[in-house]
Every structure is written in C-alpha cells, then in structure tokens.
Amino acid sequence: xxxxxxxxxxxxxxxxLLAGCLGGSDSTGGGRSDPGTTTERTPRRPNxxxxxxxxxxxxxxxxxxxxxxxxxxxxxGKDGIPSIDDPAFGDAAAGDEWLDDEDVVFGVVRGDVxxxxxxxxxxxxxxxxxxxxxxxxxxxxxPLTGTAMGFFRGKTTFGVSGxxxxxxxxxxxxxxDSRWPQMLAxxxxxxxxxxxxxxxxxxxxxxxxxxxxxxxTRVLTRETGHLRDYGRxxxxxxxxxxxxYASDSTLxxxxxxxxxxxxxxxxxxxxxxxxxFAVSTAALRDRGVVATDDGAFLAVYDPTLDHGSVYxxxxxxxxxxxxxxxxxxxxxxxxxxDALPLPRVVAFEGMWFAWAGFYPExxxxx
Amino acid sequence: MTETxxxxxxxxxxxxxxxxxxxxxxxxxxxxxxxxxxxxxxLSVAFGRTGFDLAVVSDAFARAxxxxxxxxxxxxxxxxxxxxxxxxxxxxxxxxxxLAGLVGLNLGVSYLLWRRPxxxxxxxxxxxxxxxxxxxxxxxxxxxxxxxxxxxxATGAVLTAFAWLVPAAAxxxxxxxxxxxxxVSPTAEAA
Lengths: 366, 191
Description:
The complex is a heterodimer. Chain A is of the alpha+beta class. Chain A has helices at residues 7-22, 64-69, 92-96, 119-125, 207-213, 281-287, 352-358, and strands spanning 72-73, 89-91, 104-110, 113-118, 127-132, 135-142, 147-152, 158-165, 168-173, 179-181, 199-200, 203-206, 218-220, 236-238, 241-243, 266-272, 275-280, 289-291, 297-302, 307-312, 322-324, 327-330, 333-335, 344-345, 347-351, 363-365. In chain A, a hairpin with a 2-residue loop joins strand 8 (158-165) and strand 9. The longest helix of chain A is centred in the first third of the chain and has 16 residues, at 7-22. Chain A starts with 6 loop residues before the first helix and ends with a strand. In chain B, 40% of the residues are buried. Chain B has helices at residues 2-17, 19-39, 60-63, 90-115, 125-136, 146-150, 156-163, 165-181; strands spanning 43-45, 52-56, 67-69, 72-73, 77-81, 84-88. By secondary structure, chain B is of the alpha+beta class. The interface between A and B is medium-sized, with 33 and 35 residues.
C-alpha cells in the first residue's frame, strides 16, 4: 500500500526538516567572499541581543568589497521605510474584508501558528518583526526583486537601511547595524560581515489559495502603527502583472546581466553547498518536478498553493520521482508536493535578474 | 536689486488686490497642491469605496517630523471620504503649500499682465513649468518610480538630482516670479 502524507503531517514534517536545516546543513554552506572556499564558523548566539547565525555561511559569489561598493541609496533614508514592529493579526474573515482572492500573500507555518502577510502591506514596510510560536522572526519582502524570505532574529529586530544592492533590500540589525542584503542573508559589512542568518521558508501564494489550504490562518491587519494607502502598490500590480513587475527595466543597477530569461521572469532558486541553481516557475508548473543535472536536488510544484519546494534527494534517484495532478510519485509511494520524505532546502522565488546578479554562475533549469 | 524687490512686492500686491487675479492664484495653488499630493502618494482615489473614516497615529506630533524620503514625511492622519483617501503629513502640506503658493502667484501675476495694458507678453506657462520638478520628485517608498516611465536607471547622480528637485523647483518658481513681476509697471494701479 502506498503511503500518502496529509498536508497537516507535511507541515509538521517540514518543520522538523526545517529545524534540521537550521543547523546549517542544507540551507547553508559553500563559498563566501572568495568563491569556492568553504569556511565553517562558530555560530554566534543571540545571548547578546544579536541575531542567531548559521554554522556555515551561505554562498556569496561576489567579494564583499564589490558588494559594498555596489550598494546604492534607494531614496528613503534609514527606517524611511518603517518596519512593522508590533504586528496585529485578524482571522480569515477579517482578511476577506479587504483582500481579494488573487492578492499576493506570504504564508508561514510554524507549530500551530499559521500566518499570512499581505504583499499589499509589506510593499510599504518590507520587514515585519514578529514572533511565531514564541520564536522571534522577521518576515521580509523586497518589491524590487520579488523576494519574500523569513529569518530568525533573536532578541534584535531588523530595519530597512534605505539602501539597495542589485535592487535588493539591504536590511540592518538594530543591535550591531550590520548590513544584510536580503537575498544573500549574509552580512556584507559590520560586526557580522561574513555571517549568514538562519532562514525559514516563506510561501509566496495568493490569499484565496492560502486560506483554502489553511482556513485557520491569521492575517496581518492594516493596523500597522503607520498610515499608508494599502490599496495602492507604488510599483505596479500583480493582478494582473504590470508596472515595474512587468517591465524589462530595473530601477537600480544590476550586479550582472544574464539574458537566459527575461529580467522579471520568476524563478525558484536555492543556494546549497553544491552550488546555486534556479528553476523557472513556468517550467516547474508545466512539469511538476524538476531534478538538477547531478540528481542531488528535486524541485516540486504544489498546485494547491501555486508554489514550489526544493528537496535534497540524498541517496534516492531523483529521476524516479514523477508528478501527476498534484501528487508526486516516488520510490516509497505517493506524496503531497510539500510532504516528500526528504530533507527540504530553503528555496525562494525571485526575479531572474536578481538571482543572476547575485550568483552569475547560477544553473538554470527552464 | 532694491527696485526688483519693490517691483515684485508691488506686483504681488496688485495681484492679491484684484478679485479675479486672486481667484487665479487660489485656484492654481489648490490645483497644484492636489497634484503634488497625488505625486507623492498622499492623495489617492479608489472608485467604488464609500463612507468616511478618520485615523490618527499615536504620538502624532513627534512622528510628523519622521522623514520617509527627501522632503517627504510620515503621514500622521488618514482621512477618507468616499473614493478619496488623504494621508495627512503636516510637513508635506507645508512643502506643497509653499510650492503651490509660488505657482499660484506666478500664474496670478501673469494673468494680471495679460489683463492689463502694461502687459509685456510674458508667457504664463513659465510659472507652471517651474513647478514641474516638484511634481516629479514625488517618489514611491523605495526609489523614484517615475524613472521607469522615462526609462532611466537610478544612478547616484540621478538620485542626487531627485533629492534637489523640490528645492530647485522652489528656486525656479521664485526666479520666474521675479522675472514676471518686474514687467508690472511700478506706477500701475489696480483696476
């Protein structure tokens, strides 16, 4: 009889896998300022108020000197884009009062806590300093690279520095003022230069899909402590995609040009010890599963949330997995796409130019 | 110099003393202020929305001085009336009000010159054009999105230029006002 995981089981299993990742195995590791080198570091502990860091830094393809020299002002000053430091949440019915089913939300599950962070709010704030199941976290979003990512923050909070590199949000921690480009999740200057944050997965989906999958979800309310026009996106629109999100241009210089895809095409990317790769979300939707050439990783499409996950295949032959109508068939049976019995790698969607800019050697599967 | 100042003061006095010219000043200033608030994102319209709503942040006085960008400040109140939403930032109202007043006076003096025999054919559009940089400076929360429209990437030089748009607009408006006003005869009387 084939095994089949439920979504609830998948969530718990994913969390267990996530906890394993936080030790710095799958979501971390690889080269740093000198590409190709691997340096294991003693992770700093948050007992001094600083953010917890990964035992192995994430790969960084450019020298830190290059990255810091490419940092530009985005216009607003430090905290000119205010983070949300005291978030309030309502139930799904409260979200329905102002969110359309097609609106983009960023979903997070941890323990019994299920939360949605509407893009319509985060486009104005970029960082929510929150607590999930008693654990301090930051849920972050950069509109210019289209990336939503989660970090453990320890006792400190993160703020928006007002500066960008490769069009990507540069965060700062309020304990040491180190500068952390969101996509790198690694400090490029300050006391934590070279250290990487511990990450957790954030699901980019729509409000309609998220609340259908998680009716118990809580959703960030517009009571942010700030007054903004949350009905308006200053950069364009995702329903349908227009403005900045549909343009071939970027607002600020890119670190590297790569025309394998259009600049704003969305890819699901992962940075691993073995290298950095990305799967076109269009291709992933089309095929259901995409294995890397070396068979070490498997990207899986989840139609329930229109979202992709990446797994490390370990000793399992990646080519033995197939996808049909939202179900993944593998050597051990059938699984929901977010519940494969394999270690999960932190992966996140982003615009192609942003991935290619930070990681010029990125492998692309499209 | 003294004569220039005297002529400018005289022109302003004449403009504000005539009901029709004053109406031009007020109408143009209000129109410009509205455009400015739209440009910086503090005024918006969402058709289909109804009802009234007023919200004020806590510690509004202190937060009114929090900058969100170059010469843009934290809104401390939100007023909704039907489809119109106005995020109220007192300092931006002040900045916009100064610019709007200068644009209004430019047009008012130009109107006066057009309506009076002493007019010297000064093009009233000069004053309006001087106010455009301030409108362009209306930037989004992270980067001047207007650059997307014109297809220019935000280099350091461009961003520096953006930071100076509002002061440059104010200076241009003062210069054009003086240029326009000096065409008003010092002996002219209000009609």
